[in-house]
Design a protein that fits this description.
The structure holds two protein chains of two kinds. Chain A is α/β, with parallel strands linked by helices. Chain A contains eleven helices and 14 strands. Chain A has two domains: about 220 residues, P-loop containing nucleotide triphosphate hydrolases (Rossmann fold), CATH 3.40.50; about 70 residues, 2-Layer Sandwich (Alpha-Beta Plaits), CATH 3.30.70. In chain A, a hairpin with a 4-residue loop joins strand 12 and strand 13. The relative contact order of chain A is 0.12. By secondary structure, chain B is mainly α. The longest helix of chain B is centred in the N-terminal third of the chain and has 41 residues. Classes of the chains: A alpha/beta, B mainly alpha.
C-alpha cells in the first residue's frame, strides 16, 4: 500500500461558532489528480489553507508529504506548490522576473532558476511574453504564469484553487491538458478545487464532493454515479413509431428494466443495467420504426445536483 | 548510554540541516528586502517624496548659508567667534525668514515620508493577490513584514545620511568653515534621531496597512494621526494648561513647577514634541534644560554650551521614548499580521 501524500484526519475549522470545515477526512495518493468539488463557500479554500499550514485547524491533523502542516509549515511549503484562486503578480516586473523572485524565495541558485524559468515559460506557452510586464498579461496568461510559478520550486504536490476560474473555454482546455501532462510526465500529484464540474471531470482520477464543510462523497465519477443512482443507473432514450401498449409492455418486461415512461418526444427506459441493445431489438421486432436510441450518461452535473437536492431536503427536513 | 550515542549520531545531521535552513532563510530574506527596496526606488510616490524633501532642504540650506555668510563677512573677528559658537550647526536651525529651517522641514516632511513608505505595505500585497502567493513560499510569515520594514528603514537611512553629509559638504564649501569634531558628532546624532523619528511614522503606517484592508483608509488614518499630533495636540494641551497653570490655583513655587511638569509631560506624549525637543538640544548646545528652571537655578550659572555627552543625556529619555513608540507600533502590527488569515482578498 502506498503511503498517501496528503492525509487529512478529522480536521475541523470553526469560525465564530460556525464550521467552515467539519470533520474532513481525506487521503490522496501519490500521483493522482484529485478534484475537490463544491459550491462557493463550501470550505474548499479553507481546507487547502490548512493543508499548507496557512490556517490552523480547530481540531484534527493534517499531514502532507509525511509532515505535519500545522507544526512544520515551512518544510511542507518547500515541497508543495500552491496556486491561490485569485493570484496576483508584481505588475511592474516581467513574468520572467516574477518567476526568478519566487525562485530566490525558495533559495534556488540563480543559474538553475534562470534555466528553469525559461524552460517553464516555454512549457506553459508564454515563451514570447516572458519579458512582458506581468501587469499586461491577460487572465489566462496570468493563470498559466501562476502554474509556472508554482512549478518553479519543483514540487511533489501542486494544489490549485479554482485554476479554471475566469478563463475562456479554449484556455481552460489548454490549462487542463497542461495539468494532465504534468501529472503524467513528471508524476506530480495534483489537488484541484473547482465548482465547474465538466472541466474537472475530464482530468480527475478521483473527486470529492464537498458541501457546507462536509465531504459528502468521494470516488471516481462512475463510482459516484453508481452510488447515487443505484436503481436507475442507466437511462435509455428511444424514439420509435408507433409506440403502442404492446411495445410498452414488452419493454417493461425486459430484464433489469424498472420503469418505462412515455413522453411527447420519446420513451425513457430506466434500468439497472445497460439494456440499449435489447431495447433496440425489441422495438424492431415489434415492427415499429426506430429513429434514434440514446444512452444517458450521468455526469458530475447530475451527481452534484443530486447531492445539493439532498442537502436542501435535509435542511428543510431538519428545520421543519 | 545507547540512547545518547544514537542521539549523537543525529546531531551533526540536524545541525547541518539547521544551518542550511538558516542560510536559505537568510537568502530569502535578502531577496525580499532587495525587491522591496527596488520597488521603493522605482515607485513614483517615493520619488516625488524624495524630490520634495531634497528640494526643500536644499532651499532652506541656501537661505541659512546666505544669512550666515553675511554675518561672517561683516568682519574678521566674526569668524573666530563662529568657530567657538557652533556656527556650523546653525546651518540646520536658522533661516532668513523666507523659508523655514532645515529641522522644521524634516520634522514636517519626515513623517509624511514615513507614512508614504509604510501605509500600503501589507494591504496592497493582499489586494493584488501577491500576499497569498508569497505565503505559499517556504518563508516564515514574519519575513514579509520584517523585510518591508528593513527596506524602508534602509531607504530612510540612505536618504538622511546622504542629505546630512551633503549639507555638511555644502556648508564647508560655501562658508569655508569646517565643522569641529563635536559638531560632526552632533550632526550624526541628529541624523540618527531623524531616522528613529521617521521609523516611528513608518511603523505606524505599517500598522495601519495590516489593520485596514484598503490602502486609502490606512493612508488617511496615518495622515490623520500625523495632523493630530502636528497641529491639534498642541492646541488641546494648551487648552488644558490654561486651567492647570491658572495663577489663582498655584500655591507655591513647588506647585508651580510640578504643574509646569505635568503640562510638559502631556506635550511629550506627542512624538513630534519629543523630536523637536531632541533636535533643538542636539543642534543648539546652549540649551541647558528641557524643563522649567527657577531663578535660583540659573543665577550664577555661566551661560555656555553643553558638551555633547550632557546634551545626549538630556535627550536620552526622548530618544528612548521615540524608539519605544516605534517598537510598540511594530509589535502590534507583528501580532496582528501573525494572527491574520492569509486569504486571497
Amino acid at each position: 500500500m502506498v503511503e498517501p501524500i496528503i492525509q487529512l484526519d478529522h480536521i475541523s475549522k470553526k469560525y465564530d461558532q460556525q464550521y467552515a470545515v467539519n470533520e474532513l477526512t481525506l487521503s490522496i495518493e501519490k500521483g493522482e489528480i484529485f478534484g475537490l468539488l463544491g459550491p462557493n463557500g463550501a470550505g474548499k479554500s479553507t481546507s487547502i489553507l490548512m493543508m499548507l499550514g496557512l490556517s490552523e485547524p480547530t481540531s484534527g491533523r493534517v499531514q502532507v508529504c509525511g509532515m505535519d502542516s500545522t507544526t512544520n509549515p515551512l518544510a511542507v511549503k518547500k515541497r508543495v506548490g500552491y496556486l491561490p484562486d485569485d493570484l496576483g503578480f508584481y505588475e511592474q516586473m516581467t513574468g520572467y522576473e516574477n518567476l526568478l523572485f519566487t525562485a530566490s524565495l525558495n533559495a534556488i541558485p540563480r543559474a538553475i532558476a534562470e534555466e528553469r524559468a525559461r524552460d517553464l515559460l516555454t512549457k506553459v506557452g508564454l515563451k514570447e511574453s516572458g519579458d512582458k510586464k506581468a501587469g499586461k498579461y491577460s487572465r489566462g496568461m496570468r493563470q498559466r504564469l501562476g502554474l509556472a510559478d508554482v512549478l518553479m520550486k519543483d514540487p511533489e504536490v501542486i494544489i490549485l484553487d479554482e485554476p479554471t476560474l475566469g478563463i475562456d473555454p479554449e484556455g481552460v482546455r489548454e490549462l487542463l491538458a497542461l495539468i494532465k501532462r504534468l501529472n503524467q510526465k513528471e508524476g506530480i500529484t495534483v489537488l484541484l478545487s473547482s465548482h465547474q464540474l465538466h472541466q474537472v471531470q475530464q482530468i480527475c482520477d478521483r473527486v470529492g464532493i464537498f458541501v457546507k464543510g462536509k465531504l459528502l462523497a468521494e470516488g471516481n465519477v462512475e463510482g459516484l454515479a453508481k452510488q447515487l443512482f443505484f436503481e436507475d443507473s442507466f437511462v435509455v432514450y428511444a424514439k420509435a413509431n408507433p409506440v403502442d401498449n404492446n411495445l410498452n409492455e414488452q419493454l417493461q418486461d425486459l430484464a433489469g428494466v424498472n420503469r418505462v415512461v412515455e413522453t411527447d418526444e420519446h420513451v425513457e427506459i430506466y434500468a439497472e443495467t445497460d439494456i440499449s441493445s435489447a431495447v433496440a431489438r425489441t422495438v424492431i421486432e415489434a415492427g415499429a420504426d426506430l429513429f434514434y436510441i440514446r444512452k444517458k450518461n450521468y455526469g458530475l452535473d447530475e451527481i452534484y445536483h443530486r447531492y445539493f437536492e439532498g442537502g436542501d431536503e435535509g435542511g428543510k427536513a431538519s428545520s421543519a | 548510554m545507547v540512547k545518547l550515542q544514537a542521539l549523537k549520531k543525529w546531531i551533526p545531521e540536524i545541525n547541518l540541516e539547521m544551518r542550511s535552513n538558516n542560510n536559505d532563510n537568510l537568502q530569502a530574506f535578502k531577496a525580499l528586502v532587495r525587491k522591496e527596496f527596488t520597488d521603493y526606488m522605482t515607485s513614483w510616490r517615493i520619488i516625488i517624496m524624495l524630490a520634495l524633501i531634497v528640494l526643500t532642504c536644499v532651499g532652506s540650506l541656501y537661505t541659512a548659508i546666505t544669512s550666515i555668510q553675511d554675518a561672517i563677512d561683516a568682519n574678521e573677528e566674526a569668524k573666530e567667534i563662529a568657530k567657538s559658537s557652533f556656527l556650523f550647526l546653525k546651518l540646520f536651525t536658522i533661516s532668513d525668514g523666507t523659508l523655514p529651517s532645515f529641522i522644521t522641514f524634516v520634522s514636517f516632511l519626515g513623517p509624511l515620508l514615513g507614512i508614504a513608505l509604510g501605509f500600503d505595505a501589507i494591504n496592497s500585497e493582499r489586494n493584488k493577490g501577491t500576499l497569498s502567493r508569497l505565503m505559499a513560499q517556504p518563508i516564515p510569515r514574519d519575513y514579509v513584514l520584517n523585510a518591508k520594514f528593513t527596506a524602508a528603514l534602509l531607504l530612510n537611512t540612505v536618504l538622511f545620511v546622504a542629505l546630512g553629509f551633503m549639507v555638511m559638504a555644502l556648508g564647508i564649501l560655501i562658508l569655508g568653515i569646517p565643522p569641529t569634531g563635536e559638531e560632526f558628532l552632533r550632526i550624526l546624532c541628529f541624523l540618527v534621531l531623524c531616522i528613529a523619528y521617521i521609523a516611528f511614522w513608518l511603523n505606524l503606517g505599517i500598522l495601519f496597512s495590516v489593520r485596514f484592508k484598503q490602502p486609502a483608509t490606512s493612508a488617511l488614518a496615518a495622515i490623520a494621526v500625523w495632523i493630530f499630533f502636528n497641529i491639534f495636540y498642541q492646541m488641546i494641551v494648551e487648552l488644558f494648561s490654561k486651567s492647570i497653570l491658572n495663577p489663582e490655583n498655584i500655591t507655591s513655587t513647588v506647585d508651580a513647577i510640578s504643574r509646569q511638569g505635568v503640562v510638559l509631560n502631556l506635550m511629550r506624549l506627542s512624538p513630534n514634541y519629543l523630536f523637536t525637543e531632541s533636535t533643538t538640544t542636539l543642534l543648539s548646545p546652549s540649551v541647558r534644560s528641557l524643563g522649567p528652571l527657577t531663578v535660583e537655578q540659573t543665577t550664577g550659572a555661566i551661560a555656555g554650551p553643553l558638551p555633547l555627552s550632557q546634551s545626549l543625556m538630556l535627550i536620552w529619555p526622548q530618544l528612548t521614548g521615540l524608539i519605544a513608540a516605534t517598537l510598540i507600533c511594530f509589535t502590534i502590527s507583528y501580532l496582528l499580521f501573525m494572527r491574520q488569515e492569509i486569504r486571497s482578498k
